[in-house]
Amino acid sequence: MISALNNALDDIFGAMRLRRVWIALAHEDIGDQHRRTTLGPLWLLVNYLAFVGTFVFVFQPAGKDAAGYSAYVAIGLMVWFYLMEVISLSVSLFKREESFIEGTTLPLFVYVMRLTVQSAIRAGYAIAGCIVILLLSGSELTMAWLWSLVGLLLILLATPALITVFAFTGAFFPDSEFIVGNLMRVGMFFTPVFWVYNGKDAIQRYAYQWNPFAYFLDVARIPILSGQFPGNAFAVTGTVALVMWATALLLLGRYRRQIVFLI
Amino acid sequence: MVSIKLDNVSLIYKLHEKLTLSAPDRRLGPTGGKIEGAGRKQFVQALDSVGFELKAGERLGLVGPNGAGKTTLLKVLYGIYEPSGGSVAIEGKVDALFNINIGFRREATGRRNIVLRGLINGWSEAEIEEKMEDIIAFSELGDFIDLPFKAYSQGMAARLAFSVATALDPEILLMDEWIGAGDASFQEKAKRRMDELAEKAGIIVLASHSESLIQSVCTKRLTLKGGRVESLTAVPVKPAEAASASP
Ligand SMILES: Nc1ncnc2c1ncn2[C@@H]1O[C@H](COP(=O)(O)OP(=O)(O)O)[C@@H](O)[C@H]1O
Ligand SMILES: [Mg+2]
Predict the structure, then answer these.
(1) Which of A92, B14, B108, B206 could covalently link to B112 via disulfide, CB atoms 3.0 to 4.6 Å apart?
(2) Is residue A155 predicted with pLDDT exceeding 60?
(3) How far is it, in rounded angstroms, from Cα A171 to Cα A90?
(4) pLDDT, average across residues A226-241
(5) Residues spanned by the domain of B59
């Protein structure tokens, strides 16, 4: 146990010393995906706005809730897309990095941080779009927004752990790439991303109470929408993050030298 | 002091370690290491009680048929694989060239790739900056250095890879078979640089099927077969080489 922890920390500190590597590679990744396109990474913003626009157009309730719903969907989709992208890309992470893993001695956490930075950059475009929608829909900038910011930071802190856990899962169990991919696609309907929990429907209640993603959305959404501090959501999200970090350290410590034989 | 010491090293590739829903499928040719075990417990014994010692200034040539374990041995030396048994003791800063394309990004220019490769090798920005012109000059890529890597031929890629890997004077340099990709004039240049490196009391381990390359670069020859050391001999210095080396 102690040696696994030491081993994991070795890997993580090694990666932190090489931070310029993963920052540079993450920028290359974003650049590569948008090379030769006219809008470049602005496509990320366009995609996000198109999605929010579609949902608002199709599902917006009539009457005075309309503006509130735009804000609800804007924040919901921003967090959901981030989580979906992080998790879907994590399961195939080590497979995609095969040539580096088999040819260099970079710590595995370098690849984890590379994906973290890459996802955070993409999320930055969605956040910009989200703020614009919030202001357009009449939400007032209040101190409560700071709690949402803390919520987003909490999600960001949990990200490397999530990536590590799913990356190891994908390496040990290749089928998980497809299982997780499908679950995440379906998950959007079982998570209050674009529907609002009304407190009555039984299926909705399960999807709301037993779905950790619902709490990830709430820490970013509730403060801005209602001006309140969602203690419960923060507690659940924080616990999930801690459990993920503990699992990530254990996996990294125990199995990091085995990954090269598995991919 | 730069040195390498391997004692009784073995390495096993387990073949069905992954959990999978599909039927097992692994293609393995008849050449190569020993396939042992059966069903889900199949494994390849790629290295079997390999032991040798290298001192500063020695240059080892790894020879042996395909699948003999040369690449595997180099990866154990570099630290990519943890041996399944035995011990590896290495003193010195190790750099390795396995596959020309590893660590190069196809879309980025040669110049940007030098920066990335340098960062991966743990160099500081200042060190990269300082070495940049040397690396470009040695690679003789000229204006191609500002074109994307994907526009390079295999030989050009090999020049760039070799130039970067040897730029910061690694104490131990490991090279897999690829070096043959460069043309004759580059091979000559590469050989001179390897000589310089060895003179600075570095160690080189080179896997190659080219007898002439081994003869001209190496001082020792290790023959692997089926993962075992078949022989470890000194490479005789050719009379012509000896004469030209000490005029
Ligand atoms: N990733 C791998 N998984 C399973 N077996 C492998 C793997 N890599 C190499 N081997 C096996 O190990 C043996 C040695 O391979 P290698 O070191 O690549 O030989 P060489 O470089 O001398 O041609 C071969 O039998 C090969 O089939
Ligand atoms: Mg080989």
Answers:
(1) B108
(2) yes
(3) 10
(4) 95
(5) 55-82+92-245
Signed CA dihedral, B34, B38, B39, B40: sign only: negative
Taking chain B (247 residues) in consecutive chunks of 10 residues, what is each chunk's mean pLDDT? 93 72 51 66 89 94 93 95 94 86 84 91 90 93 93 89 87 83 82 85 90 88 94 78 49
Residue B215 belongs to a domain:
yes
Residue B75 Cα: closest atom of ligand 1: 17
Domain boundaries, chain A: 2-25+40-261
Ligand nearest to the CA of B68: 1
B19 CA: distance to closest CA in chain A (Å):
5
- In the reported structure, the alpha carbon of residue B2 is separated from the centroid of ligand 2 by a whole-number distance in angstroms of 25
Cβ–Cβ below 8 Å for B99 and A99: yes
Task: Provide CB contacts within 8 A for A215, sequence distance 6+.
Answer: A232, A233, A236, A237, A240
Which residues of chain B form beta strands (DSSP E)? 3-14, 34-36, 43-55, 59-63, 85-91, 94-97, 172-175, 203-207, 220-225, 228-234
Q: What is the pLDDT of residues A6-24, one digit of tens each?
A: 999 999 999 999 999 999 9
Six-digit token pair at B64? 């042996």
Residue B28, domain member (yes or no): no
Q: What percent of chain A has pLDDT over 90?
A: 68
Domain CATH for B154: 3.40.50.300
Please tell me the total count of domains within chain B: 1
Name the token pair of B84. 């399944």
The residue whose CA is least distant from atom 2 of ligand 1 is B13
What beta strand segments (E) does B110-180 contain? 172-175
- Report the greatest alpha carbon distance in chain B: 67
Q: Give B194-215 pLDDT, tens digit per residue.
A: 888 888 878 999 999 888 888 8
Question: B18 vs A20: CB contact, 8 Å cut-off?
Answer: no
Instruction: Give residues with Cβ within 8 angstroms of B153, minimum separation 6.
Output: none
Tokens of A100: 């580096």
Pairing mode of beta strands B85-91, B94-97: unpaired
In a domain, B32, yes or no: no
How many Å lie between the centroid of ligand 2 and the Cα of residue B73? 9
User: The complex's ipTM?
Assistant: 0.83
Give yes or no for a contact between B61 and B220, defined as CB atoms under 8 angstroms apart: yes
**B-chain residues near A259 (CB < 8 A):** none
Phi (first) and psi of residue B229, to 5 degrees: -75, 120
CA distance, residue A262 to nearest chain B CA (Å): 7
Whether residue B35 lies inside any domain: the answer is no
Residues with CB under 6 A from ligand 1: B 13, 28, 32-33, 44, 46, 64, 66-72
CA of A258 to the centre of ligand 2 (A): 20
